[in-house]
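Notebook entry, structure prediction.
Reason for the run: the old model in the group folder had no record of what sequence produced it. Starting over properly, with the input documented here first.
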Amino acid sequence: MRIHIIACRIFARELSWLAAQSSHQVDITWVGRGLHNTPEDLRRRLSDEVDNLYAQLESGELEYRPDYIVLGYGLCSNGVVGVRCRDIPIVVPRTDDCIALFMGSQERYFKEFSESGGAFWLNCGWLERSLNLFDTEDLQRRRWLEYAEKFGEENADYLLEVESSWMSNYSTLGYIHSSVYDAPADLERARQEAQTRGWKLRELHDDLRLLRMMTDGTWNDREFLILKPGEVIAPDYTGLKLRAVTEEGGC
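New structure, fully documented this time:
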């Protein structure tokens, strides 16, 4: 089987390690971190990357046609919603976001969320690829200018205030240890970030189960949406996170 994964770059160490062990041919296209903050940009980027695969097939740059395209994303603030399947099935994990993927299941994600009272989660992938874990004044200013241009200055103030309020909801910083890479410097950075904000540090170990299913092609309908040709990704509110709809909008 030939599997082409389009994934956030924070999975680089884990997915590369798993792909090297897979009995299937696994190719990976990496996408930059942080697009889940702008779901429309993420949706557009993922659709562009799918289209780019087809362009490579048509030009001959990509010589072998993938049997499956796998998205290394969860629902991610609805960022995967609207991605369309052409004629190569698309597989997407039924999780809220990348944290559930690192934890191995949506169930464990809920359990940890409950036990921690809500936590801001980090791991070496996030820390290696994040110059700023939290918005700087410059980034906030640029976002305000963007909002002001689109919605007016008063609305820009309100939107930025709402966006910034999430910080007050956290009292714990969670750090997920990687089973493929020991990163004491990243753990220390997480510890310092927690101390700076007066948060508790909660440590746990990852579970590569879902990521391994992606590289081994052992996905199932309960934990993965398998999109058939002509279907589009839509949100699901029954607990499955994702569902398929036809391009005409039917189920």
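Summary: The chain has two domains: 2-102+208-246, 106-205.
The old model has been moved to the deprecated folder.
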